[in-house]
Amino acid sequence: AEAEVNSLQKKIRALEDELGNTETRLTEASQKLEEASKMADESERYVYPIFKLIGRKVLENRTLADEERINQLEEQLRESTFMAEDADRKYDEAARKLAITEVDLERAESRLEAAEK
User: Which residues form a coiled coil (predicted)?
Assistant: First the structure.
């Protein structure tokens, strides 16, 4: 019976030692987790503004590119409008000259008919 008690006491001491070691490892792991959490918070505090700044820069660059494209398109529109107005003026002038030429042709034909009689 005494040997059995000694054996059980050894097992208890071994379990207590194992429990102590496990508690120590748990404490160390908890501390490391807390440190990692703090580091994550710190890096998030620094990284988030950087990503925000990068995102803002990307948007600013895209906005500048869009503004340049808008300016180019507006210039093309002005040029196209000018060319269309110029073409309209030339058409109107050609139509006027054609009408005058047709009237002159009718007069010439009338004179020709009168001369032939």
Answer: 5-111
